[in-house]
Design a protein that fits this description.
The protein contains 13 helices and 13 strands. By secondary structure, it is an alpha+beta fold.
Length: about 350
């Protein structure tokens, strides 16, 4: 591979972003276990400080579970307007280096710095500089992953968290993937990991040993993606902001669900994923849709449209739970649930197709 062919991709991920903003703005919270989210019975943790994570508290966890794991947990209501302002400051720093910025949420983004505005040759130095600028401007820590494609940059950003960075070179990429457990692959959820395990696939090396035909047969349209990433290959481009017609997230369960409360609990992380994306891109929507796929692969959808924009995460969650309850008792156990927000609007009107978010 010639040097001109190697892309330089950075994945920047803010450390415990919402919780870190709260600790920055309220010194009394520093060093304490903090969860951003509602403490009520149906509340969900939107973000957890590193102090809270040592107790096993994590984002998308029901608040009652989080409280049980950490009795001293301090709940702080989210301030999305503040998080969005800080996110905008961070975006402006990215834009000093490259126009090729693909935000994934308020607190993480891909940057393609192959050709960059500073004329810097070494991507690790760019990442160091960006992280130092973020710290100077916002007072917050960011971690970074640097590699020659998006998949490996995303994996690298987790290696030295918090407040660190790691690089995976073209020479090291294939070996890194071979040694990695597939359940840690970005884009492989628990159900897919379990399905892979049943086929004897537990590591990247196991995945690499399977033919493209085998992977297509057992994993459908994801087969070619898995075939390539097992070899450290990911040709996806860094795509700057685009406006979508709808934003959706779905999850396939390791075991089918036939209990309504269990199914409702699974909607929380999906609603949060959708809401975080919309917050990051300043998108609002009027229609909430729930998709239910049953054990026999038949599916149903239920939608509700409100007159104004859906105002907050709690409303999406409440609408989704009501829609799900309307099909209970389930005609068969449920293997997948999805939540989508549509009838979107932003300041611009250019439309793009639906975005499906991995959970």
């Amino acid at each position: 591979m010639g040097s001109t062919a190697v892309r330089k991709i950075i994945h920047i991920d803010m450390d415990a972003f919402y919780a870190s903003v709260e600790q920055r703005d309220n010194p009394a919270l520093r060093g304490l276990p903090v969860a951003v989210g509602g403490s009520a019975a149906r509340g969900v943790v939107a973000a957890a400080s590193y102090e809270a994570r040592t107790f096993g508290v994590r984002s998308a966890m029901p608040s009652v579970t989080a409280r049980r794991k950490c009795p001293d947990l301090i709940f702080v209501p989210p301030r999305f307007d503040v998080y969005r302002q800080v996110s905008q400051q961070i975006r402006e720093i990215f834009a000093e280096y490259t126009p090729l910025i693909e935000p994934l949420s308020l607190d993480e983004a891909y940057l393609d710095v192959t050709e960059n505005l500073k004329g810097m040759e070494i991507a690790t130095e760019i990442a160091l500089e960006i992280r130092a600028r973020i710290k100077a401007v916002t007072g917050l820590n960011a971690s970074a992953g640097i590699s020659y494609n998006k998949f490996l940059a995303k994996m690298a950003s987790d290696l030295n968290k918090p407040n660190g960075q790691a690089v995976i070179t073209p020479k090291n990429g294939p070996g890194f993937v071979e040694a990695l457990a597939v359940k840690k692959f970005h884009g492989v959820g628990p159900a897919t990991a379990e399905r892979m395990r049943r086929h004897g696939i537990e590591t990247g090396l196991d995945l690499k040993s399977k033919s493209l035909g085998f992977l297509q047969q057992h994993f459908g349209k994801s087969g070619p993606y898995f075939y390539n990433i097992a070899r450290g290959i990911d040709e996806r481009q860094v795509i700057p902001d685009r406006i979508r017609k709808s934003v959706g997230a779905e999850d396939t369960f390791v075991e089918d669900i036939d209990d309504l409360d269990l199914a409702k609990a699974e909607l929380g992380p999906l609603a949060q994923k959708v809401w975080r994306y919309c917050e990051a891109h300043d998108i609002t929507g009027k229609t909430v849709t729930v998709k239910i796929k049953y054990s026999d692969f038949t599916q149903a959808t239920r939608s509700r449209t409100v007159s104004g924009a859906v105002p907050d995460l709690a409303t999406i969650q409440e609408m989704a739970e009501t829609l799900l309850a309307s099909v209970f008792p389930f005609k068969r156990p449920v293997r997948l649930l999805g939540v989508t927000l549509s009838s979107l609007s932003t300041e611009e009107s250019e439309e793009e197709p639906q975005l499906a978010l991995e959970i």
